[in-house]
Design a protein that fits this description.
A 6-stranded mixed β-barrel has the order 1-5-2-4-3-6. Strands 12-15-17-13 form a 4-stranded antiparallel β-sheet. By secondary structure, it is of the alpha/beta class. The longest helix is centred in the middle third of the chain and has 18 residues.
């Protein structure tokens, strides 16, 4: 048997085991030809990829090392004695192979695939093969079965209220931090809205990253339920609540491959909302030339898929199409976006009007699901709750319940203004390029990094006038961002006023 050792290496979610080349008990050469080994201790097992180590300071010749994530999942203390064996290939690999060959999978086959993905029994290569095969061909029946399978694995929330609402934006629009305004408006009205949100993967900020500027977001499932019971809503990081965990694994593989098909997107979103116990959902689909959804035709096809899954699962879905032609608000990056959110909630005169209006539209659509509210009055009610300060009070209750942050971070001190090369009128802003620029500046890893927009579509600008300001916290990021902006500022200027 080998002594268990925690190896302080972050393997980004993958289970990795380390064994010395000079191991006294096992011959590493016998295992290297196989994808995975099985680590066993007192009935607990873990599948992990094996790496052979020549430095005995990492693992000794009588030790088995586990990466940070693998060690946590096995759940045993260091020094415990453990064994390893060749891992049997999961049955779901046969189903993945069938999908690669173009077959339509049955619900039980998709359930086995999802279960193995969630339990980290599949390698990234096997998951990627499954996702690429699904991107090439997937029926609506398979999409529905995949959604149900993903919702089935992991934690599930349940609520006493007959109507539990939620919202989701398809994404791709920088600064689109409407959830942090919608949630307190809806909570102030009295409809429960347990909002679990993601951290950024390829964007400059997720809702969880921005909310973390103001309050703690890594709540447990029990803590999340307490906050919703007390405040009517919450804004937490979904990754800590373990809702539809297979989705998180698949997303981590999809992003580098830029796989984002309609069917997989719908399965991802709907499985999360089903696991969260939502009964009514508003989907925001921004449409724009540099958004994820580029045309009304694409939006219509996506809407029909959401409505189909909602109808088959009992989740009421309302799909709204919105303007995705440019960033929403002024700030892009956690601190700057939190500033905009609070300006709207505090009814400040200089609060971004587009962020305010879009948030009211979405909140109004959710409030229409209240049986006690007169039909068509949702927007007016949302407006009243924001104007009266009730939404701000609700937000402060949520912040306090989740754990208010006392050391509010500041914007990055390294700044550089990008100016207009000529006079004219702003006729277009490249959302993708602006988002990438904010990430190069350091967002969201550095929550004070990002972009502060001074000009939006329709504004006139003089030559040499600032279009936006880059904020960074480190010189290296600052240099990358400035170079990228010099290559193309992301703005299209037309002639005349």
């Amino acid at each position: 048997m080998l002594k268990l050792k925690r190896v302080a290496i972050d393997t980004y979610g993958a289970n990795v085991a380390f064994i010395a080349r000079t191991c006294r008990i096992y011959r590493p050469e016998e295992y290297q030809a196989f994808n995975k080994i099985k680590v066993a201790h007192n009935g607990r097992t873990l599948l992990a990829s094996l790496m052979v180590v020549d430095d005995l300071s990492i693992v000794g010749d009588d030790e088995l090392g586990l990466s940070e994530q693998a060690f946590e999942r096995l759940g045993m203390p260091e020094g415990e004695m453990t064994t390893i064996a060749l891992a049997e290939q999961p049955r779901s690999i046969d189903h993945i192979r069938k999908k690669i060959l173009g077959h339509t999978l049955e619900p039980f086959q998709l359930e086995e695939i999802v279960s193995d993905i969630a339990a980290h029994r599949c390698s990234e290569m096997e998951i990627a093969a499954f996702l690429v095969a699904c991107a090439g061909f997937m029926t609506t029946a398979e999409m529905l079965a995949l959604t149900k399978a993903m919702a089935k694995v992991g934690n599930k929330l349940s609520w006493r209220a007959p109507v539990v609402v939620d919202k989701h934006c398809i994404g791709g629009i920088p600064g689109n931090r409407t959830s942090m305004i919608v949630v307190p408006i809806v909570a102030a009205h009295g409809l429960p809205i347990p909002k679990s949100s993601s951290r950024a993967i390829t964007s400059p900020a997720g809702t969880a990253d921005t909310m973390e500027v103001l309050a703690r977001v890594d709540l447990s499932m029990h803590e999340m339920q307490q906050v919703v019971d007390e405040c009517g809503g919450c804004l937490v990081w979904g990754g800590h609540v373990n809702l539809s965990p297979a989705d998180d694994v698949m997303i981590s593989v999809e992003r580098p491959l830029s796989i984002d098909t309609r069917e997989q997107m719908v399965a991802s979103i709907m499985s999360k909302k089903m696991a969260a116990g939502s009964t009514h959902l508003v989907i925001d689909i921004p449409i724009g030339p540099t958004a994820k959804v580029k045309s009304h035709g694409d939006a219509m096809r996506l809407r029909k898929l959401f409505e189909y899954v909602g109808q088959e699962t009992g989740l009421h879905v309302d799909v709204l199409t919105t303007d995705g032609s440019q960033p929403i608000g002024r700030g892009i990056g956690p601190v700057l976006e939190a500033r905009d959110v609070m300006a709207v909630l505090e009814n400040k005169a200089d609060a971004p009007a587009d962020l305010r209006e879009k948030s009211l539209q979405l909140a109004g659509a959710l409030l229409e699901n209240d049986p006690a509210l007169k039909g068509g009055s949702g927007y007016a009610r949302a407006h009243q709750l924001l104007e009266s300060g009730e939404a701000l009070k609700a937000m402060n209750r949520i912040i306090d319940a989740q754990g208010r942050r006392t050391d509010i971070p500041c914007t990055g001190e390294l700044t550089h203004d990008i100016v207009a090369s000529r006079s004219g009128k702003v006729v277009g802003i490249d959302c993708f390029r602006i988002a990438r620029l904010a990430r190069l500046a350091g967002a969201p890893m550095d929550c004070g990094a990002g972009i502060d927009l001074f000009k939006k579509v329709g504004d006139t600008v003089e030559a040499g006038e600032p279009l936006y300001r880059i904020h960074a916290c480190f010189e290296s990021d600052f240099g990358f961002a400035k170079k990228f902006a010099d290559e193309g500022d992301g703005y299209t200027l037309g002639d005349g006023a």
